[in-house]
Amino acid sequence: MTQKDITFVADFLTEHFNEAPELYNRKGKYFNVERVGQYLKDEDDDLVSPPNTEGNQWFDFLKNSTHLKESPLLFPYYPEKSLHFVKRQMEGVIDQCLQKPAVVIGKSVHQAVCMSLYKTSQSEDSTPQLFKLPFLWNDKMSNIHYVLFTMLENSISKIHILRRHTDTSRSVSNGILAVEFGNFLNNSINESSDSSRCYSCLDAHFYDDETVTVVLKESVEQEGKERVLAQLPLS
User: Fold this and answer.
1) Distance between CA atoms of 59 and 53, rounded to whole angstroms?
2) pLDDT tens track for 5-49
3) What is the mean pLDDT of residues 189-210?
4) Are 229 and 215 a contacting pair, CB within 8 Å?
5) In this structure, are residues 160 and 178 in contact, taking their beta carbons and an 8 Å threshold?
6) Rounded distance, CA 222 to CA 198, Å?
7) Over the stretch 87-122, which tens digit does the pLDDT of each residue have?
8) Which positions ≥6 away from 145 have C-beta within 8 Å?
9) Do you know which InterPro entries this protein is assigned to (predicted)?
10) What is the pTM (predicted TM-score) of this model?
11) SS (H, E, C) the chain
């Protein structure tokens, strides 16, 4: 170590570890701890060396403001406490703020319809994932909610479209339907293709209120499987 390093350490010790007789009766803390570390202790005890807020512009501003001094919008300041204490206080306040909205929103939500899509075995471990890629869309012009999804077991070539009116008291025709791709694309892609060629849906999103975009792939297990990007009108 150089002399400069030794001087630096000595100055640090002199500043932060001086004896402090006023602390003799406080659980054996007979000297000032390092001033950063005290803020990180997960304790409710007061800081050994609280910060000096004299001349702080923000505190002076609050002190001289009759409106802000007691404002419930300002989080209270605890100059004697560590950051862990302040964090717990803030989390408590935030939890309290969220409780009422959670109750109100929860009471306003109710089940509009229930549909049985498939049945699984009792053992969750052996249950395959059958429900895939739900995509939500809200048509604000018609006030209709759409959900696109696929079922992976016996209908990989189908995409299901569920629609509900935003006003739950009203219904829409064909509330749920399925579109099957099968081999209807063969003529447009390859005139000489085998009629058994089949396509399944990789992904599907609404393009706009009237159009659905789907990414299809050949269902046969072979190299060079074709991918098709198709635009399907809802009509």
Assistant:
1) 7
2) 888 888 877 776 666 666 556 655 445 556 667 777 777 778 877
3) 72
4) yes
5) yes
6) 13
7) 888 899 899 989 999 999 989 888 877 878 777 766
8) 136, 137, 138, 139, 163, 164, 165, 166
9) APC4 (IPR024789), APC4_C (IPR056358)
10) 0.50
11) CCHHHHHHHHHHHHHHCCECHHHCCCCCCCECCCCCHHHHCCCCCCCCCCCCCCCCHHHHHHHCCHHHHCCCCCCCCCCCCCHHHHHHHHHHHHHHHHHHHHHHHHHHCCCCCCCCCCCCCCCCCCCCCCEEEEEEEEECCCCEEEEEEEECCCCCCEEEEEEEECCCCCCCCCCEEEEECECCCHHHHCCCCCCCCCEEEEEEEEEECCEEEEEEEECCCCCCCCEEEEEEECC
Q: What tokens does 158 get?
A: 């189908």
